[in-house]
Amino acid sequence: MRLNKKPRRLAALALLLALLTGLLSACGGTAEDTADIEAFRAKAESLRKAVLADQVRQELTDDPAGAAGYAVFLSVCSGVERAHVCGGTGDSPEDAWNAAAQAAEKTVKQENLVPLWLKADLVYVSSPLSAGALKNIGEVFGPYGFRYGLAFDSEYGTALLEAELNTNHIYDYQNGGVDLERLNAYLEETGREPLAALPEEYTAFQCTGWLCDEGWNIVQLSLEDASYGRRETAAIDGDMARALAQDGAEYLAEQVQEDGSILADDGSQLGPARHADALSAMLRGYRQFPSEKLAGSIDRAAEWLLGQMAYTEDDLAFLMDGSEITLESLALGVIALTDCTETSGETAYVPACQALGSGLLSLLDANSGTFTHVLNSSDLSRKEASRSAEWDSMGAAALCRLYGLTGDPLWLWAAEQVLDRMVKENSMLNGDVWTAYALREATKYDQDRTDYFVLALKNVQGNLASIYGAQGAEPAGLEMLMVSYKTYRNMLDAGYSADGFDAGLLADVIHVRAERQLDGYLFPELAMYFEQPQKVLGAFMSREEGLRISVDGLCRNIGGYSLCANNYEKLLADSDPNTKGKGA
Questions:
Q1: pLDDT of residue 223
Q2: pTM over 0.70
Q3: Cβ pair 399, 415 in contact under 8 A
Q4: Among residues 163, 210, 217, 474, which is most buried (max CB within 10 A)?
Q5: Does 584 have pLDDT greater than 70?
């Protein structure tokens, strides 16, 4: 099961539609052109029935678009380029629909558009909004949090949907208001007249929407604040979580270059630490749905990582990151190559894992349980004693993984020196995902350490309220909860009691985070407004970072949803009886 099927090859789609309609070379146009028009008309008719349904009409107020009466927008997208948005207004919903449909059909003909996705938006609420009020947009709503479209005149002669405004960065969250330069660039790009100046008063509006997708399915879009504009979904079950993890992994795989390097969202090459984290994430996706495409990207990415290793005369290995060697890159490198070994069943990566592990040990003062975080790559001298609290947990987790890989007790002993020091300093209750991973790995191999089990449960229980209350789609919360849940299950499997720990509450908060993080997933209804929809489809973005698709965010989402998929049945059993059946 997939949340989204990737767009089919457009030529093949056009030919299929032509065969279905039987309109080969009709009306003076090409077969493909005629098929596109017929496909548009068929999809538009399906959407018209949804938009003008009696139930929808009954919920509309009189003149929901203000002075314009009623307003409808149709967004047509081929999957290759940004959606073309056509609007229409009228004295009734039918009139508005007809005006928008005529404009959209004209655009399909002129642009030779394949209507892979067709989205309909009906304005259901609007209000005048002064330019002065928009000056506080960033402070009131947060980055990219203003979920309203804007009409720049009362008749909607120039009007843009919320998704158009935010994906094109037309709302200026830093300085307030609308960025006129970006607005006019977008208007000119889409064949509309630019504005000489911004109005003193706008009409802000929201829409109820529907999408007809590439499979001709009609999906209704949400009106809820955080999920506004994305499809209403059933609760996230194991299959859906698995599909989300796979889609994220496939997006990462597309960023792997021929030489094995991985590109970030800004086109730069990832350094060893981020590269290793992305490699582990792809492997998680591969374990959900093995594919040749993923396997090829994984192999190239693993070879690139091996190529970044530098050895000393004592056979210690380090990952070179410019002028630095970091604890982070060593730890994530060990974890990634261990993942490669465990997934493939091959032992070729084991020597590299051990050599990197030796490099990791060279950063550890065993007497104090303290890592040096950064070395100068030129001479291996200390550059920074400490840079990030998370890195200590990464290092401990990596050492535990090496123990699981080799059975050498040295690795587990070293990991426990680090963890014991962190316990004494009370630095392990900050709710970060790597603390959760370190404790899970340690308790997997040393089940006599009941203090680690207790600490893991305290770590998650002490952060449940803040994670539950977080309204955004920040990706680390779900993964941290799922890793902690695994530790809880390990504790039960080891025969210990978890009295006083509310597993039902944990399962319910996991469900909430899985739903909220879905707001960052690029379904077609949002991807269609990006410059290259097909390339971003199935990725995860961060609204708080300007709709940015980051490797870190993808890795955390893939980690969280893959664990949801693997543990769905147990989660369901542990859920509160009143919420059972609602998904993970």
A1: 96
A2: yes
A3: yes
A4: 163
A5: no
